Amino acid sequence: MLAFWPVVTMILFILLPAHRALIWSVLGAYLILPVGTSFEIPVVPSLDKTVISNLSILLCCFLFVREKWLGALKDPAIVALAATFILSPFFTAFFNPEPLIYAERFIPGMTMYDALAQAAVNSITLIPFVAAYGLINNDERRWQVIIILVTAALAYSVLMLIEVRLSPQLHRMVYGFFPHSFGQQMRAGGFRPVVFLGHGLLVAIFCAMAATAAIARWRAAKGRQRTRAGLIALYFGVLLVLCKSVGAMILAAVFVPIVAFLRAKRVAMIAATACIMMLLYPAIRSAGLVPTTTISELTGSFSADRQGSLGVRLINEDQLLQRAAEKPIFGWGSWGRNRLYSAEDGKDLSITDGAWIITLGMWGWAGYVAMFGLLCLGGARLLWRRKLLSSISLASLSLCGLLAINLFDSIPNASIRPITWLLAGAIFVLGSPRIRRAKDQTGDNHHKSAVSAK
Predict the structure, then answer these.
(1) Burial code of 44-80, b = ≥16 C-beta within 10 A, e = fewer?
(2) DSSP 269-323
(3) In a 3-state reduction of DSSP, which class is residue 344?
(4) DSSP string for residues in 315-335
(5) Which distant-in-sequence residues (6+ apart) come within 8 Å of 201 by Cβ?
(6) Is 81 exposed, middle or buried (0-12, 13-18, 19+ CB in 10 A)?
């Protein structure tokens, strides 16, 4: 499947408009390809589902896309953040040459080869972002993201229901192995669906995003289409409950009503605020401004076991923050150097679940601001683009809501995936100076035409 996927991507780009082919190729690879396996070739990053999918998209954009799709490279903010994202591993390697020794555990120092490998991975990671910026650049195409996401989720729901009933077996049946701990997929006397995403938490957050997308369609539709969209949103809500993930249910319970009922300007301000909070989250967390006690008590109202697990995770995050503070600018680098180990026997004491703490510990504030700046700045810029807020469309607002859900989920989970980068690229183009100038020129031309007509 991994080897055949570039052919699938080419077929999509040949048969479909480029923006739809991009969306289907990103979603298809994420939902179908196997987790936890890759082709290992010397001097080349591990060719897993993400790398193969992203490189296939890059190749097809060069071969089949006639329109200009590299507009992201003309945005100064993107160029600065992307350059930092790609080049900062070299500084991390420079400041982390020493090995770490804990009893019998030996952790090597970083080399320039490690930095080069990470820079290559970071460059490949940005491909969906850059392609989405160039191809998903108007409201009609943003609606296509919503429609395709709902369509894909409806098809995927059949596989999810099978695993809810029979236990997570599809990855093993199709690909021959189960990619994670089976015990973590057992909840409340039943099972979480995993399908081909690797963990039930990822399936749950995907379902929460599908429910939000469906409610956006409900808000925009009329007549029978509105009824159909409402039933689909309700169906995803029931499916989300069956996924048995408290975090995903809370995020859906917050963002579904926001997208469904609030005015456009308020939705945009909430999404922008969420992006700013995520961009500054490590600083907010370090300052003690996150109400961890309230969050723990709220979790305990759902499950005492979940409260205990969250308590351990919060304590662990405090320890990892202290570890990250020892090398705050460029971090500790790879090989698990950002983790905590026992000095007596070298045992690994860390639980690194959240994408934010993993990024901060490994690559420091330079890597964190670069990565989450690319993911968050597009939504955050809406907060001070008042003219844009007055005319922003429901499709754009819905994508902001989907991105906010995914970003908030990256606090407890490592859930930043190509679909996250695609959403971020589609939103980043909203506040692009180039796009604004084009709109201003269009408005001036309309004004001049009206004056001439008078």
Answers:
(1) ebebbbbbbbbbbbbebbeeebeeebebbeebebbee
(2) HHHHHHHHHHHTHHHHHHTT-S-HHHHHHHHHHH-HHHHHHHHHHHHHHHHHHHH
(3) coil
(4) HHHHHHHHHHHTSTTT---ST
(5) 192, 245, 247, 248, 409, 413, 415
(6) buried
**pLDDT tens sequence across 41-56:** 877 788 999 999 999 9
Average per-residue pLDDT in the chain?
Answer: 88
Helix/strand/coil for 454: coil
Beta bridge partners of 348: 341
pLDDT band at residue 448, thresholds of 50, 70 and 90?
A: very low
Nearest of 106, 85, 108 to residue 97 by alpha carbon: 108
pLDDT of residue 433: 57
pTM of the model: 0.91
Q: How far apart are CA 443 and CA 446, in angstroms?
A: 5
Strands (E), 83-172: 100-102, 105-107
Q: How far apart are CA 42 and CA 57, in angstroms?
A: 23
What is the CA angle 136-10-158, rounded to 5? 75
- Predicted pLDDT at 134: 94
Rounded Cα gap, residues 423 and 404, in angstroms: 10
User: Sorting pLDDT into bands at 50, 70 and 90, what band is 302?
Assistant: low
Place of tokens 């995770």: 313
Contacts of 271 (CB under 8 A, 6+ apart): 379, 382, 397, 400, 401, 403, 404
Three-state secondary-structure class, residue 177? coil
Dig out the tokens for 10 from the structure.
Answer: 């080419």
Segment (H or E) for 377: helix 355-380
Residue 211 CB neighbour total at 10 angstroms: 30
What is the percent of the chain with per-residue pLDDT over 70, rounded to a whole number? 90
What's the average model confidence in pLDDT over 213-220? Answer: 95
Q: Is 68 helix (H, G, I), strand (E, B) or coil?
A: coil
The enclosing H or E element of 227 equals: helix 223-243
41: CB partners within 8 A, 6+ apart: 47
Residue 337 neighbours by CB under 8 Å, 6+ apart: 96, 100, 107, 110, 362
Three-state DSSP state, 104: coil
CB burial string 233-267: b at 16+ within 10 A, e below: bebbbebbebbbbbbbbbbbebbbebbbeeeeeeb
pLDDT in tens, 373-388: 999 999 888 877 766 6
What mean pLDDT do residues 230-239 have? Answer: 96
